[in-house]
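Session log. Operator J.P. requested a structure for one protein chain; no other inputs attached. Running the standard single-chain path with token output.
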Amino acid sequence: MKKDNNIIQTIDIVDAMAEMTSAEIFCFKTIYDKVKKSIRYTEDCGRYKCKFDYIVKISIKDKQNQKKFLSGFKSLESKDIIRRIKRGYYMISPYMLIDSNGVQEYNEKIWNDAK
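Structure written below.
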């Protein structure tokens, strides 16, 4: 969710995905799949917590898929759904993913610093 003049704005993942082109879906899914692979569980006070990396390194060897990824990225970046944090590292908007780990503010800071 975005906070703009005390108004909370979120990105509806279903609406966003329904409007995506094939290149945008390829880009989003490539990043999201890498986020899912980073999931790890830790035990905290007898309870298991799920942790995962919001910022992931993407390296695509195939030239055709590279072109498709970059095309999708440019479009998703203009829609404020994906940002490049540094060369080869990408992040999905924290306003699009549900955060159950209490790190929303940290992710919002990284997101906003990457403008």
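Operator note: Residues 22-37 form the longest helix (16 residues).
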